[in-house]
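ESCALATION

Customer reports they have been waiting on this structure for their group meeting. Please prioritize. Original submission:
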Amino acid sequence: MEWCEPRLLVPGVGSFPELHLPIQPRSKPPGKLPTKREVPYLDQVIKSLWDFHHCFSNVREHLRDTAIYSACIDERSRSKIKCIHDGEPPCRSCFKSKRPECILSGPFETGRRQSNGTKPRESAPPTSAKLNVHRDSSVEPASPKPSINDIAAGKLTKDVVLGLSPQVLLVAVTTFTQKFPELAFNHAPTFSSHVKEDVTVWIKIAATLALCHRFLPVTIKDQIPSEDELAACSRESLQSIQSVTPSISAVQSLLIMSMYEWGAGNGYGAWMHSGMATRMMQSLDVMKPDRGSEVIETEIHNRTFWACFVMDRFIFCGRSQPLALPLDTMTIQLPIGEEDFAFGGVSHAGKPMESTGPFTVDEYYTVLVEGFEIWSKVLDLIISGGRRTPGMSQPENCPWVTGSPWKKLLDSVEEWRSQHSDRLRFPASGVAVHVSLGHGEKFAYVNLLYYVCILFLNREYIPFLPIQLPEPVGPIDPPLLEASAPPGWWHSRAKDLYNAAECITLIHQQLDELNAPLLTPFAAFCSFCAGSMNGYVTSFPQMNLNRSPKSAAHEELNFLHLEKFTALWKMGRGWAQTLKRVQTLRFHVIRDRARFIGKTRSDFVALYESIHDYAGVSPIVRAETELSANGASISQLFDGNESNDSNENAQEMRNNPQPRSSVLGELMPELNPEIFLTGDEIWNQAWPMWGDQQFGTFDEAELQFNYDQDLPTL
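Update from on-call: job pushed to the front of the queue and completed.
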């Protein structure tokens, strides 16, 4: 007997070419269905098809009812914009616009409107007595889709996060890895499997989306909750898991939220999240079993520990502070290379630290770990008093003396740099080639870290207002150094200082030109530091022997970078304000040079301290004075009413125009040009010491560890 595979047609189901059932050919009238005898298990086949058809019809009718036939009244009144909702208010438009009331209007009739007035056809199962159609009771109904109300109220957020498409997660993880090289613990090839295995990894996803929200394309943002919702959910969820068994994903979530709070201007929150991550990681390290051959898991554990180490040095409270993870207590190996990590290379976690060079960009995380250890020591020296620390002016502690605190740090920086291959050094290796290979941000981060260390160390000994100085020299205000520097030593320090500022500026410029900007807190801090020095040498070109002809243009680039950063992060407002105030001070110096002769750092203590502001907060102005008799404006600073020396400086400012920034102008209106400095106490009153202003008591009513405060204007 021959067999054929005709297509089975069931009324109401339609044509499904993929469903072919073997039947015996019989001479039957066309259009009749085969019998059960002809097709075994016909009842089960028809039942399955009918169940599928019934389910599909219900879904189709529901979607038509909610997405087409109902709409928000406000949407109807404004235009024929499609109203998107889940069957109950608010609709997406009202939710985003924060309208208090959202009323959905009908019609809500089920089914399509009949043109002939006949009753719509109702779907019904076949009437065969032998066909007993029923649903399998073991199959659970599908979970309802979270609505916009659920997202807004913080309900079902876990389902919302885990329900995101793999494409969204991939974009978020890739963005995080590129923009935040200091947190290099994600293993992208196995990330999706961790999502399924770890019950707390959804919090890490929410924190990652909150941190990277500002960098994501619009098409991705439309598919996820807002940044504030994700951040709030992450905070609440992290609080709820603190008392349960620690996990790697929980530690990573705390580190990500620490970075988020730091950029958002909440220094206290950043410090606390970082501290909790460190303590949780220490407990995990104690409980960690021997993982044997689980190479990737071991390296993820290793890198997460080093991320805690980096954040311990990254989140600085503004004063000298003990480190939670001293380097001499670390017993784990430095991170392996990026390629080995991606492919599951051998990790040596648990063995003593070893470090050999030369390093390439593949070992950038090892380079960053060692670099942040040095950076924390540099920053600690400066904010602890720097050259004004008791004993630092003695001959044995002068900066050129081998073994002095300053020289030890400089030697550490240069030794660290000597381990970098030529391809890891800027400007020997350009930014473009690294961007083309996909690791431009990593290359930039390493070089920014090096140059900001050089800038901080060399800036410590320059005069604050070198009005009458013809060339680079050391301090001119107490405490003076008790020994003389070797010939040419200050010239070399000036060259290194302004070269560092130039390199920081050029790195950012090249990243911007290649559409790979690094708009993260540490990168912006480096730009702020470079801007302060580019402005300084613009006003006093003799302090680098006229070797910085492009300093004014570079200062403008620093302003522009801070504009972009401030548009994304609240942290940058203080840095931008400080640069504008320093710029205004330079204008006053040009206007009345004679009045500023003899002024030193001690006359501008708080302003000087704000230049070292690592936290992005500008001291609050407490007192200002205005000219009452002279109505001069900024443009009149260049009039020929000053001394000859002042006119020379004015001409220099004409040749190197000062930056005027549109975004910064919106954030901080132009400084009042009538403000004039008439005494030694004015700027000290206006600029309280940074540490005193930031860190009062951690009192609930007077918490000062907050960098997101409203900035006063002049």
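Sent to customer with the following note: The radius of gyration is 33 Å.
Escalation resolved.
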